[in-house]
Structures are given as C-alpha cells and as structure tokens.
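Lecture 7, part 2: worked example. A protein chain together with 2-succinylbenzoate.
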Amino acid sequence: MKIIEMHLLPVKLQLKNTFVSNHETVSRREVSIIGLKNDTGIWGYGELEAFSTPYYTPETQRSARLIIKETLGPLLKNVQINQPEEITNIFSEIAGNQMAKAAIETAVWDLFAKIQKKSLAVLIAQKIHTKSRRNVPVGISIGAKSSFAELKNAVISANYQGYQRIKIKVTSVEELNLIKKILQVFPDSTFMIDANSSFSLKIASKLAEITAPNLVMIEQPLRTTDFVDHSILQARITTRLCLDENIFSLDDVRTAYTLKSAQAINLKLARVGGIANALAIINFCWEHGLLVWCGGMLEAGIGRATNLAVASLLGLDFPGDISASSRYYSKDVITSEFMLARGMLSVPLGLGIGVTLTPKYQQALQDTTSFL
Ligand code: OSB
Ligand code: MG
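Predicted complex, written out as structure tokens:
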C-alpha cells in the first residue's frame, strides 16, 4: 500500500468542564484530525494530541503540525508500506516528536485494519497474541479541586455514573489533605492520585502517610524526566508509584524498571509515538510484572476510539482514563457517542477505529489541500 494524500485539520473543542492540573487549566482543547488516503481510495484517521502549550510535554499543536507537514509526511511519500509497524522504523531517524509521529502512525493502523476488513481492536490483539474484549472497564480523572465540598461532589457523581476507578488530580499539599479525607469517606471506591509533577522529595513523608487500602497508586508525584528521585520515593512509601510524564519510550520504561522508579505505567499512545511502541511497552511490562494501563489526554472522538482499541486488550485490565464522551466536549468530531454502561465502554465493532467523522468535519478535512 502507498499513501497518496495526507490532510490535517485543526479543530477547537469546548470542554464542558474546565480541567485543572498542575501543568495548566484547560477549557478549550485544540486537536488536529489527520486523514490519510491510500492508493485504493481508503481513508485512515488519526488525532494529533499535543496541547496548545508546551507544559505537559514539549510538543504543541503548532510545532507538531509543522513537523508532520515538513518532516514526517515527506518520509512516507511514494513509500510502499506492507505492515503498520514499518512507520515507527521509518520515523526513527527523527528525534523526539512522539505526538506528531503518533498522529500519522495511528492513522496508518486504522488504514491497515480497514484494508484487512477488521476492527483496529482485533488487529492490535492479533499483533500481541491476545484477544480483544468487547467491553472495557474504565475510570475517570477528576481535575484538581480546592474545596472539600467540590471534590466530594465530583466523587459522588463519578460513583453514581459507575466509573470503576477514580483518579484525583493534586497540585498542592493542601489538596493532598482533602484527598486523605475523601479516601476515608468513600472506603468502597478505588482511588488514585495524579500529581502531574507538583511535588518534591521534601514532602516524601507526607506522601508516605497517605497510604490507604483504597488508594491503588500515586501517579507522577515528582519532576518530569526524574527517575532517580522517583526511585528514592518508591523505596520509602508502600503505595505503588506510576509514571506518566517521564515515559516517552520503551527505553524510559526499562529505566523505570531497572531503577525501581515505579511499579506502574500510564501508557499514552501519543506520548510514546504510537501503537507499535505502545505494544512493545505492554509486552515489556507484562514480562516484568509492571502494571500497565491506558491513559488519556482529553482526546476527541478519533483519539478516544483509538485508545479504546488498545485498552480492549485482554490483560490490560486495570481501568484506564477513558471516560464517556459526555464527560468531555459539548460537540465532538464523530457521529457516535461512547456511553458508560455498568462502568464499561463498548469497543466499536466497525472496521478500523469504528467511528466516523461528522459530515461537517469530514468535509472540512477533505477540503484542505493534501500536503504530501
Ligand atoms: O496526567 O494523565 C494526565 C489529561 C491531560 C493531560 C494529562 C493527563 C490528563 C488526564 C485526563 O488525567 C485523562 C482523560 O483524558 O480523561
Ligand atoms: Mg498523569
């Protein structure tokens, strides 16, 4: 197969609820939809997940769109592609730029699944010699809250909707104290905390104190790229640490494993450069007893469908950050909605990612000129 057209459409979406983390406060989410057309006229779709600003990762929507158009796209021009995994190898001569790479790479996987007349979930499961589940248990990530009442209401709502695990963002020691109370008020809910790099080893004893039977892990408490302090902290606390911001590659996961910096990995397709790298990381984690689960980054419909295909893998059982569509945008880019039923989302059964752009976005994407 050859890719003969590449299209990129920037879209701005309005979040229903402002999302607060240590990095930034997001109310408007900018993503880009990428559309690839192959030489038999089949389209594959991907989503560029970089944020507008370089706080969470170095890439931004603008920087990644530039890299896609000027650097990555041209590497695929007139190239015969026989397997989706080849994309990662072709892109490996380009340093970094994981999210730009993932946007194209995931679209190529969608294309191949469609060519092979199967769902992306089934294609991915075959690649890693497991099965894909029809329904995936999921969790929710609640933005940081500065009052106990607000936090408590958000937890009650998450429980009412049926989420199987609740992640709470924390940006300060004061908020950590609120969460400590929440853990006691809701003994039957499963919680985790995500600090998005807001702490340092100075508060190691505070983090050691917060252990509770219903607190399953603490995500990225310390500085992005720091494996050493995370390792020191993990040795001092009984709660499992999970890395997010630190993980851009399998090499990073190997570093975390070797230094014992964490016992769990938040896996984001975009942050690790796409599906082939994600599968290599899943394999490594399964072989080495690291808990790996599917993270999220406020994706729109295309990105959520792609995540769900990966999260459907039998064995990737810990509920990920893939919530119902209703939790995110007032108007999404796809025609269908992901709805929560008994704490699960169902995996689309159609070909490829199994979701369709709304006519408006499909038209707008096709109206852009191909940059290939
Ligand atoms: O740290 O996991 C994170 C969203 C944007 C950037 C980073 C993170 C998150 C989330 C939200 O926690 C997960 C979701 O998409 O629901
Ligand atoms: Mg995180």
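DSSP finds twelve helices and twelve strands in the chain. The radius of gyration is 20 Å. Keep this in mind for problem set question 3.
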